[in-house]
Amino acid sequence: MVIEGLDGAGKRTLADGLTDALCAKGASVAKLAFPRYGVSVHADLVKEALHRGHGDLADSVYGMAVLYALDRSGAAEDIRALRDAHDVVLLDRYVASNAAYAAARLRQDAAGEVVKWVWELEVGRFGLPRPDAHLLLRVTPAVAAERAERRAEAETDRERDAFETDDGLQRRCAAVYDELAASGWLAPWHVLDGVADVDLEALAKTLLNP
Ligand SMILES: Nc1ncnc2c1ncn2[C@@H]1O[C@H](COP(=O)(O)OP(=O)(O)O)[C@@H](O)[C@H]1O
Ligand SMILES: Cc1cn([C@H]2C[C@H](O)[C@@H](COP(=O)(O)OP(=O)(O)O)O2)c(=O)[nH]c1=O
């Protein structure tokens, strides 16, 4: 089960709350967040590039997307093992993040070239497992930006990066996410209103008894 949404939408908060709600119902839950900072060298390079490291690396949409994809490729066996060992595996961002952000950066839509390329690279070539479903935590770009800003003030080492401070990118990204959800890209999508309180108990029940 993949959680997707803009920077600051509340994905991590939802993943934590949903994990508690699922565990309270007796389910065993594993949680993984991408990029895997501190675990994968590809993820660390991404973070450094988003904070102006590595020259013009962050300017390359395809270059960055390959790094995100390599991070996931290195986790493919772990994901399969977690799926075998648990009732629910929650992924905070996955392949669709690459599709949404790369398309938004290139000003393409969900039917564009780069979205197809991401599928071919990550699913076709790297053999990443397809999720059962996505949860799109939908908030307006303004709400996401405000939450990301508040988080940056409250937490150390969370200064907003090059993608988070680009309002136009976040707006285009929100539009691509809506299109990916509407077309059922890679797996079915369920859209959650991230401004209204998500009913975690009801969501946990639905996930366990689809
Ligand atoms: N439903 C919510 N209402 C208000 N604030 C929220 C909500 N969900 C998350 N937040 C806050 O917004 C900020 C970003 O949330 P986070 O879960 O880290 O987002 P993401 O993982 O999508 O980047 C955090 O400070 C978090 O406490
Ligand atoms: C996982 C992933 C993230 N991204 C983008 C979305 C975010 O703007 C950025 C960083 O990911 P994010 O999960 O937001 O990390 P953090 O907020 O903890 O730094 O990378 C992609 O473009 N492709 C991907 O495959």
UniProtKB/TrEMBL annotation:
<dbReference type="Pfam" id="PF02223">
    <property type="entry name" value="Thymidylate_kin"/>
</dbReference>
<dbReference type="GO" id="GO:0006233">
    <property type="term" value="P:dTDP biosynthetic process"/>
</dbReference>
<feature type="domain" description="Thymidylate kinase-like">
    <location>
        <begin position="3"/>
        <end position="182"/>
    </location>
</feature>
<keyword id="KW-0547">Nucleotide-binding</keyword>
<dbReference type="GO" id="GO:0006235">
    <property type="term" value="P:dTTP biosynthetic process"/>
</dbReference>
<keyword id="KW-0808">Transferase</keyword>
<dbReference type="GO" id="GO:0006227">
    <property type="term" value="P:dUDP biosynthetic process"/>
</dbReference>
<keyword id="KW-0067">ATP-binding</keyword>
<dbReference type="GO" id="GO:0005829">
    <property type="term" value="C:cytosol"/>
</dbReference>
<protein>
    <recommendedName>
        <fullName>Thymidylate kinase</fullName>
        <ecNumber>2.7.4.9</ecNumber>
    </recommendedName>
</protein>
<dbReference type="InterPro" id="IPR027417">
    <property type="entry name" value="P-loop_NTPase"/>
</dbReference>
<comment type="similarity">
    <text>Belongs to the thymidylate kinase family.</text>
</comment>
<dbReference type="InterPro" id="IPR018095">
    <property type="entry name" value="Thymidylate_kin_CS"/>
</dbReference>
<keyword id="KW-0545">Nucleotide biosynthesis</keyword>
<dbReference type="GO" id="GO:0005524">
    <property type="term" value="F:ATP binding"/>
</dbReference>
<dbReference type="InterPro" id="IPR039430">
    <property type="entry name" value="Thymidylate_kin-like_dom"/>
</dbReference>
<dbReference type="GO" id="GO:0004798">
    <property type="term" value="F:dTMP kinase activity"/>
</dbReference>
<keyword id="KW-0418">Kinase</keyword>
